[in-house]
Amino acid sequence: MLLAGRAARPIRKIPKLGWFVADPLVARQIYNDSAHFSIVSEGAAGHWWAQVVGEWVEDLFEGPGHTELRTRVRDLFAAKHTDDLVHRVIGDALQQLTVDLDAGRTVDIAERARVLVGRSVSDLVGMTPADIAAVFELADHGDDPDEPFRILFDHVEELVNLAMGTMASTTLDPVAVARARTLAGKLAISVPAAYERADANTTLGRCRELGLPLQHASGLAILMAVAGTDTLASAMTRMVALLHDSGEQHALLAAPERLPDAVREALRVTSPAYLVGRSVTADVEVAGRQLRAGEHVKILTWSITNAVGDFRVHRDYVAQTRQLWFGGGRHLCLGAQLVHSELTGLLDALTAAGRPFEVVERRYRRKVFIPTYETLRIRLAG
């Protein structure tokens, strides 16, 4: 569908599904038009989330609380802070990746990515390994300290996968709502204690300092954790696969200063959030078409960004697409810089030896909402 979606440029209506957008300028126009398009009405992500964590998310997504919260937590997502967070939370794990590769070991990047993301999620929602073990009734994980983080990742992924089948409608059936609330509830079980003790330089700590109610702070932590789980793991593994399959890892090793460009290119080509929904709240004309209130819009992010060309480490910044993989307008992904910091950390670890790697085995992860790998085993070549 995403390949065929290029034929929708700039915008085309598909019966029973709504409007599909495959043009960067039209996509940006919609992202910047909060008078006619909504993220919390039927057909958009906010509507899905309101059913899971409560209708108060409407204010967090589009009301006065949205602008205030983003303004007051913005410094938590500046590059210095996110780089420090990556070093604190997954720095040791990334260093171990370098050691393992340099020692000639075969490493499963897909499995490592799930652990790295699991560690990040646990930090965000205030869960320690002991908390995870207690919540998910792990009898013993002493021989494998990474097991709690794999369990946590799988738990969050199950919640994400409940979004499958929401192309035509974001209204969940009662069984799915009940399961989503159960999963979200388990994820938030450690938030109250973490909310009280968290440092002000963490997301939960800042929420407390801002006077955000515990329920809202818990919901925000869950939202950010879930939104960044599968998408980040997908970007990590697919970035590594792209570097190998395209042969561009050699260009990166020859010009390590292009590492930020490699990260940006990986996000452009993979576009983990490959499709973004909006609902039309008032009649409006877009690119010569009349959109009516109540209709749905699907922005084909992957189709738009891949029209630029194949993955190339030496590709300079493309103003036309300009981070569309993170959305746009007032809903540009709050954690965009954190994603850059984590992917940069992974590439630093992967290229530290200054030698190319080879893929030994790969297998795709099936029946998931965000495309990624079940297994991606690599080792240094030669």
From TrEMBL:
PROSITE patterns on file: CYTOCHROME_P450
InterPro entries for the chain: Cyt_P450 (IPR001128), Cyt_P450_B (IPR002397), Cyt_P450_CS (IPR017972), Cyt_P450_sf (IPR036396)
Keyword Iron among UniProt keywords: yes
UniProt keyword terms in alphabetical order: Heme, Iron, Metal-binding, Monooxygenase, Oxidoreductase
Family, similarity comment: Belongs to the cytochrome P450 family.
Official protein name in the record: Cytochrome P450
Source organism of the structure: Nocardia acididurans
